[in-house]
Design goal:
The chain starts with a strand and ends with a helix. The radius of gyration is 24 Å and the shape is globular. With about 375 residues, the chain is of the alpha/beta class. It has a single domain, classed as SGNH hydrolase (Rossmann fold, 3-Layer(aba) Sandwich), CATH 3.40.50. Helix 5 runs antiparallel to helix 6, helix 6 packs parallel to helix 8 and helix 9 crosses helix 10. GO terms for molecular function: hydrolase activity, acting on ester bonds. Belongs to the 'GDSL' lipolytic enzyme family. It comes from Digitaria exilis.
Length: about 375
């Protein structure tokens, strides 16, 4: 005869199970992981705003844009809505933090928002005259505020993402945007000085976005500055065909003027980070030097195991840049290189999975962060 006796001690959160057998064997299960007076560690939640550098599928879902092979070939085995052969740097960061890949906010099916949401949209700008899509930074922030309100409403009925208000409060809010503003200005034919004149307005719009999220309860912010625009094969190819002024190259083979504008933007964004720290109550603001990370990939490519740092893997036209507008990656007859894991540029505008992995590692090291606060620590902290 087998009798099962369960004795529950609620105060100590201990459950003991005694099995009375002929041999008087007693089995006691271990203590429940959390005692009655101890709370579980906070769940890491991330909300991201930006452009194609971190878009995990919003443009594909929101605008019905269909990406074609060989997009996504290195990890997903098919196009995933990402402008890369595989994972983006934000995917690697989520993996290292123990999170799901961030689902695109605009995707309606088969997604989970339990670890946050991604509002970044390929082609997005901060807004203003350079606006190229309906999903500007201001729109993304409005979408987030709607998501937050809707989550609170649904959670009372046991529906929705399940993110609690305290988790919104303790979430990390990341911003990676501004590159398209500069790129659009140069592509429109503006001179270097006129492009630089647009930067204060771009930075003001980023300031407004961060402030709006802070007003909605956000307290932990990570701002990425922009990468070396003049090292993109698409811009190098355009300038080489255009001729005229502004085509001077630096020692790494990158366009001096375009990188100068990127650095001017980053200088002003860095000042904004300092201002936000003084202005936003109880907030932590970390600024990450994406420019130095990505320029280092190009200038020191052999040290990272890369070759042909200024040539697109998937494109047309051949050396030196393998980029031709209208015959870009995913177009009929456009082929990708066989050694994508040794290339930095995937399609002339975006990075390969291999390069994104290095970028993510550098971000997580905090070596390029001001202050040098590791994202793992920021994510686990409470505001």
């Amino acid at each position: 005869m087998l009798r099962l006796l369960v004795v529950s001690g609620v105060a100590a959160a201990v459950v003991s199970i005694q099995l009375i057998l002929p041999s008087l064997l007693v089995v006691v299960l271990p203590r429940w992981p959390f005692s009655a007076n101890k709370q579980p560690p906070p769940k890491c939640v991330v909300f991201n705003f930006g452009d194609s550098n971190s878009d995990t599928g919003n443009l594909a879902a929101g605008a019905g844009v269909r990406l074609h092979r060989p997009m996504g070939r290195s990890f997903f085995g098919k196009p995933s809505g990402r402008y890369s052969d595989g994972r983006l740097y934000i995917d690697f960061i989520c993996e290292r933090l123990g999170l799901d890949h961030l689902s695109p906010y605009l995707e309606s099916s088969g997604v989970s928002f339990r670890h946050g949401a991604n509002f970044a949209v390929a082609g997005a700008t901060t807004g203003g005259a350079a606006e190229g899509t309906p999903f500007s930074l201001a729109t993304q922030v409005r979408q987030f505020r709607h998501f937050r309100r809707r989550t609170a409403s649904l959670r009372r009925r046991g529906l929705g993402s399940g993110i609690a208000m305290l988790e919104f409060h303790n979430a990390v809010y990341t911003f990676d945007i501004g590159q398209n503003d500069l790129q659009a200005a140069f592509t429109a034919g503006l001179s270097y000085h006129r492009v630089v004149d647009t930067i204060p307005a771009i930075v003001t719009r980023i300031n407004n976005a961060v402030t709006m999220v802070h007003e909605a309860g956000g307290r932990k912010f990570l701002l990425y500055n922009t990468g070396p625009l003049g090292c993109l094969p698409s811009m190098l190819a355009r300038w080489s065909r255009r001729g005229g002024g502004g085509g001077e190259l630096d020692g790494a083979g990158c366009l001096v003027e375009l990188n100068g504008a990127a650095r001017a933007f980053n200088e002003q964004l860095g000042r904004l980070c300092g201002e936000l720290r003084g202005k936003l109550a109880n907030a932590t603001v970390v600024c990450v030097d994406m420019y130095t990370i990505k320029y280092g990939l190009v200038a020191n490519h052999t040290a990272h195991g890369f070759s042909d740092p200024l040539m697109a893997c998937c494109g047309s036209g051949g050396p030196p840049y393998n980029y031709r507008a209208g015959e870009t990656c995913g177009s009929p007859k456009v082929k990708a290189c066989a050694d994508g894991d040794r290339r930095i540029s995937w399609d002339g505008l975006h990075y390969t999975e291999a390069a994104n992995r290095v970028v993510a590692d550098d971000i997580l090291s905090a070596e390029y962060s001001d202050p040098p606060l590791q994202l793992q620590t920021l994510c686990a902290s409470t505001s």
